Amino acid sequence: MADGLETVRAGALTTVQDLGRAGYAHLGVPRSGALDPAAHRLANRLVGNPETAATLETTLTGCAVRVLRPAVAVVTGAPCPVSVDGCPAAWGQPVRLPAGAVLDVGTATHGVRSYVAFAGGVDAEPVLGSRATDLLSGLGPAPLTDGSVLRLGAPHPEDRPPTADTAPWAAPPDELVLPVVPGPRDDWFAPEGLRTLRTAGYRVSAASNRIGLRLEGPALARAREGELASEGMPLGAIQVPPEGRPVIFLADHPTTGGYPVIGVVPADALGAAAQAPPGTPVRFTPAAP
Questions:
Q1: What is the CB neighbour count within 10 angstroms for residue 17?
Q2: Backbone angles phi, psi at 63, to 5 degrees
Q3: Between vectors from CA 271 to CA 129 and to CA 166, what angle results, nearest 5°?
Q4: 163 confidence band (pLDDT: 50, 70, 90)
Q5: All structural domains of the chain with their residue ranges
Q6: Quick one: which of 105, 172, 254, 266 is 20 to 30 A from 84 by CA?
Q7: Closest C-alpha among 33, 13, 14 to residue 251
Q8: May I ask the CATH architecture of the domain 176-286?
Q9: Quick one: which H or E segment has residue 285?
Q10: What is the pLDDT of residue 164?
């Protein structure tokens, strides 16, 4: 694999991600894919890739990789210090890497997940049409470990990565405000439970992951006891387990579940949720009609 990447430091969790494997929920396979699709798409554009190319998604502590051939790379998503062979490099701007250079993506200074794109994309073996790592089903390449090696695809000869454009970044707000479409099982909750969802403050739990954003805060009072037979679960579903605290389903979520869903957060709001670090205040608001 002389044309790929060698992992020097895997970080807390670094996975290969693209836009996911849509269309397999009926087989129990989640969509998976980048939790912050906008940051993933932007990284690919900055190095001349199609938006479907695979990137590396880091979590909080970044990662470091050695390129085994000359490459062009960029880091977007959560801002972080970037260096090449120990020398500072620009975040959000393409950088040329000579063969053998170590690209170090440091700990996020804001947000949670950074995206590392390479011209030509990460060339992992596709599974069901996607290179995405799915932590729930185990499909796709394994999360990076120290010493693991990945292939890189060949950049298109006509592509010319920008040299001056920089990735925009808006610092996460002090409070994450998420729109909610009610139902389909909001009738399983007492009026005071529905009111709590609309008015109470929550915080992002450290137990959150690619499967779901777990929240700490007041329990939602139920009007009905027992549980449902398993039914389909969409991306963004706010499922309420027996202890009453909401869980917002993210890209690696199960495709079915038996706990009632009090509402659904639209997909275009989930990128901000994926970048909310533990302790971030969360509030729900009705989605615009």
A1: 30
A2: -165, 170
A3: 95
A4: very low
A5: 4-151, 176-286
A6: 172
A7: 33
A8: Beta Barrel (2.40)
A9: strand 281-286
A10: 46
